[in-house]
Amino acid sequence: ETGVTQSPTHLIKTRGQQVTLRCSSQSGHNTVSWYQQALGQGPQFIFQYYREEENGRGNFPPRFSGLQFPNYSSELNVNALELDDSALYLCASSSPRPPNPEQFFGPGTRLTVL
Amino acid sequence: QKEVEQNSGPLSVPEGAIASLNCTYSDRGSQSFFWYRQYSGKSPELIMSIYSNGDKEDGRFTAQLNKASQYVSLLIRDSQPSDSATYLCAVPGGTSYGKLTFGQGTILTVHP
Fold first, then answer.
1. What is the 3-state secondary structure (H, E, C) of chain A?
2. What is residue B83's three-state secondary structure?
3. How far apart are CA A25 and CA B74, in angstroms?
4. What is the pLDDT of residues B28-53, one digit of tens each?
5. CB-based contact (8 Å) between B31 and chain A?
6. Distance from B96 to chain A by nearest Cα, in Å?
7. Model pLDDT for residues B49-78, shown as the tens digit of each residue
8. Residue B14, SS3 per DSSP
9. Which of A39, A53, A90, B48 would you call most buried, defined as having the most Cβ atoms within 10 angstroms of its Cβ?
10. Best residue in B2, B43, B47, B101 to probe A by mutation, most A CBs within 10 Å?
């Protein structure tokens, strides 16, 4: 069984640039959620994708957007990067079993915005 | 009131002791509760899930849930230095489907 994978591991961008982060879900999981974790804080929910559609969104501006592909992999896009976007970006996959499925995290992408 | 609150750390215990980590949540409708362990520089790892009132044991870990008091805890028996990590409590729900709401985490240090 393959776990959740993310790429790249680390990324350095400058303010105003755009970034794309990628995630492959765990084998058998068709739901992907994205989280942002600032240093010393718990992860904050950005959004979730199921069947290639956004299935819930946290309190993040529209410059945070995503995609899910037919193979259940997903991308997180962030436009007009700000210094405060520097964080660990986590992807979690789950299977949609009710009532609330367990979510399993990938290794994360560390984004630094200069 | 924060949606999920954890006891402020850091928590330091000697090797072999019991470490007790606590979490309270605000949504009375919550049905599932998760504990994640996060080593420094790594991603969160799911270590316990609990859905019913009472205790759930898995090896040295015991999760305790009291829905009436909106309280969930994690006990680590015979603590080892390898248990030193940040422990995150997570609760599904809120206004967004699929969302896990995390506490701020409790840093646990187990010293030899």
1. CCCCEEECCEEEECCCCCEEEEEECCCCCCEEEEEEECCCCCCEEEEEEECCEEEEECCCCCCEEEEECCCCCEEEEECCCCHHHCEEEEEEEECCCCCCCCCEECCCEEEEEC
2. helix
3. 28
4. 888 889 999 999 999 999 999 998 89
5. yes
6. 5
7. 998 899 999 999 999 999 999 999 999 999
8. strand
9. A90
10. B43
Give the distance, in angstroms, between the CA of residue A65 and the centroid of all CA atoms in the same chain: 10
Question: What are the backbone angles phi and psi of residue B42, rounded to the nearest 5°?
Answer: -115, 175
Query: What amino acid is encoded at A57 in this protein?
Result: R
Nearest to B100 among A57, A103, A106 (CB): A103
Nearest by CB to A56, which of B31, B34, B97? B97
Distance from C-alpha of A110 to C-alpha of A30, rounded to nearest angstrom: 24
